[in-house]
Amino acid sequence: MTISELEETLKEEARLFLSRARGLRGPHTEDLFARRVYIGPEDVHVENYPRRPLAVFNPGAVLEGEVVHLFPRLVFEYYSYASAIGHATLPLKDLLAGRIPKPLPVRILLYPTELFEAVRGCEDARAHRREEGYALFYTGVGKLGDARNTDSKEVFTAILSLAEFDEAFQLKRKAPIRIGLSGEETGLALYLPTKNATFLEGDHVLLRPSLSGLPDLCWRGRLDPKTLKAYDLRPVLAPEAFEYKVGWSTNALRLPDGTYLVAYHGILRHDLSYRHGFMRLSPEGRPLGLSHYLLAPQGLAECYGDRPLTLYGNGLLLHGEELVFVGGVGDYAIGVFTAPLEEVLKRVVPL
């Protein structure tokens, strides 16, 4: 099998899924979430870089005890929109109450050092606590595949990548993720524009590869931890007729019964807004339940920004019986939103 045949195999899988998996959702939006706090670039101080960010947004989030770790995307200029990923900590109760240190200390953890990040840097972390430290799925925007054939910075690839840190947040490894049919290193693999990944149980993951000529849809698969090859990909959620595409919005949150809850986003055709619903999944990523939209941009602060009508999810936490959604607002700020877990789960209809 050639690389082109490998890609065509995935495309055929997507085509079959799109032909039978639409019609599960309507465009109805029922916003359940309370707005807790916004954190803008003027509210942070970057301790290990001598410039002030112009945008602080799309943060991954990890809850350890009563402390939340935030991993925001930082942009310092609009000329090339090159991004880095930082790290900040604070008590969750203070975050939910809006008691943010002024300024909030942030340290840059990831910044462009490799070819696959060399154009627009490191974007949109999805953060996970692992036994050996921390793991961040993120998007590296640089040169891979066909993009290698030109030195123009207008030609680049957005590639799913993984960064691993030890307990002290020292970087151990970062590398792009390849797509294959099996996890064996001897098999074929290719780099596809891919985003929106999160770990599930063991080596099971959610991810969103982009296939030319087809709309983006949500997939599940497995990830070999040594080779960083994603394989055994299966589509899970398709865009509806009223959407341009769908993607995973947050890390997958393990619920007490062993299932996982994850937010998804759709981009609406009628206004280009990002709106979010929720899906319940088995530990292997099989879909168990699905909601309509339960969170959407509202008001001036959320509808007007560097990217209008954009709420972009990254972090999903559970605080007692309260679901905490942490995301970007308009590509300029961080927003924190909460809703009762029970009310969200009531709207996740079994599949």
Automatic annotation (TrEMBL):
Q: What is this protein called?
A: Glycosidase
Family affiliation: Belongs to the glycosyl hydrolase 130 family.
Alphabetically, the GO molecular function entries are: glycosyltransferase activity
Keywords, comma-separated and alphabetical: Glycosyltransferase, Transferase
Q: Matching InterPro entries, A to Z? A: Glyco_hydro_beta-prop_sf, Mannoside_phosphorylase
The signal peptide stretch is none
